[in-house]
Amino acid sequence: MDSKKENLWKVKYLLDIKKIDKQHQYFFSICSKIASLCDMSRSGKQVRIGQFLVTIFELRSYAFKHFATEESLLVKYNYPNLFKHIEVHDMYLEKIHEFTNRIKKYHEHIQAPVDQDFIIEVEAISDFALSWWSNHILENDKEYAEFVKKVGRAKAKKEHFSEGSPE
Q: pTM score, two decimals?
């Protein structure tokens, strides 16, 4: 991971759905936190394993909140690929679970400074998350965002004409 990147989130990730965009930005900030911790550790600053674990677990815990928000939106707009989208979310969670199982052994040493092996594991997690979120937003989420906006415009147009048209 190129940890020199200060802001990993890019404008191209905008869906123009305020709540979702804000949550997506937060995921990139979590990856930035991980990169900063790696940089601090490499520069000789004392970073504890526990600091990393809290941030890594946030990749998982915040995903539950985000996925619930997103999936509720897709239900509301009767998105035809809802279950396909949920399967993609489940794959992310499964992969994060695999990573957390790989770093489980470090929990015993939560107050210990990090070592190179741990940094390699952490960077693998962060690289996966960064790549996954980038691809997911640009491919899967952009698709549903267009659908939601199209349905929303059609619904607004229908409501506008049904409310204001004289008979």
A: 0.85
